[in-house]
Every structure is written in structure tokens, then in C-alpha cells.
Amino acid sequence: MREASTAMQINVGCGQTPTTGWRNFDNSFSLRLARWPRIFALAVRLRLLDPNQRSFVAFARSADIEWADALHLPLGPETVDALYTSHMLEHLDRSEAREFIAEAIRVLRPGGMIRVAVPDLNRLLASYASTGDADAFVAATLLAIDKPRAFWQRVRLLIFGPRNHLWAYDSRSLCKLLTEHGFVEATTRPPGTTGIPQPGSLDLHEREGESLYVEAAKPTLR
Fold it and tell me: pLDDT value at position 21?
């Protein structure tokens, strides 16, 4: 795995929206399988991978997306200047979220910035207060999914894990999570704005209609 000696900016859990000029990581199981061609071919034959997953592997290769576990990034301590993650944190349980924030602290240089985009719980609550539609509110949180019934659905769940959300955040709770784990100056950012120096092609409006954006800094050395 390559490691830059100059400024490095990373997008963790980039999915279909990698950032040009940054290093992009994703933990897609299909992407991980693709590192072993024979096993990948077997998974395709057994129909464990659907067409969308196979297409993502091809896209990831063309976009130079690297497989990585967000809780164990393949980077040395204090090698990263900016870390961005969009709509990934809510897929981690509370323990995993804390591990990820600790990992972000580890890889960021002093003064380095983290930018986190998540679904905005306040927006969902405002919609519920307006409509009173409890079913629509719970469905929109993605905090639950139907139980798998078919055999292959159960196998896929066992292999790939759940794809629903495991937590939800508002501005206050996300800022609290960051500051409790060592970050400073946690603040909510309006869409289109950032404190990251030279963000390049970073999408500062990604999923704007549903997102909350929070940035914070790793403390500088004294």
C-alpha cells in the first residue's frame, strides 16, 4: 500500500463518489473479494454478488478506490492532513463509531481536519412534526430492515452484514462524539463551506438535501 510523504487527504467510505485527487477507501465486501480473482469468480457463480456489486468492483478499479477497514486504516500515524467521510458513520454501531474517531485521530497530523457528513436527524424530526406520519419517519431513519426470508437473503446477510443504519445524529450529538474523543473546534458547517485548506474537488454539497456537515480539528502540538 502506497503512502505519501507530502500532503495527503483521504475519503473514507467513498462508495460511488470518490474524490478526485484524494485517496479513496471503501470497505465493500465485493471490493475485498475482488483482490482474490478465483474467490471473486466463485462468488459470482454462486450468485452471492448481485449485478450492482459487480459493477461497483469495475468502477472501483477504474477510480483507484482502495479496500480498507475504516477502523484500521492502512496508514501510518500522523500522515493525513484531511479526512472526509460521508454517510458512513451511521452504519457503525456506537462502539465502532468511537473506534473510527480514534482511528481518525491516529492518522491525522496535528492541526489536521475531519469532515463528517451524516443524515440529519433534526430534518427527519421536523418532517415528522409536520406530517405526523410515524411510519414514514421510522422508514426514513433506515434504523431497521425487514428480516431476510429466502435462504440466499440469509446467506447474504451473514456474509455482507446489515446495510441499515445503526445510529442517528444531530449537530450536537455529532460534535459531542468528536470532542469526547480528542478533537477540538467541532462545528457545524453550512453546505458549500469548509475549514479544510485546499479541499480541491471535495464535494461540499454531497447529499445536501438530507445531510448534516460537521468539521473538527486534531489539536496541535504544544
Answer: 96
The torsion angle over the Cα atoms of residues 155, 71, 20 and 34, rounded to 10 degrees, is: -40
Any residues with CB less than 8 A from the CB of 220 and at least 6 apart, and which?
110, 111
Contacts of 186 (CB under 8 A, 6+ apart): 174, 175, 176, 178, 179, 214, 215, 216
Give Cα 167 distance to the centre of its chain.
13
Instruction: Cell numbers for 157, please give them.
Output: 446477510
**What local confidence, expressed as pLDDT, does residue 146 receive?**
80
52 and 81 Cβ atoms separated by less than 8 Å: no
Residue 31: per-residue pLDDT: 72
Q: Enter the C-alpha cell of residue 100.
A: 473510527
How far CA 119 is from CA of 58, 76, 86, 90, in Å, comes to 28, 30, 9, 8
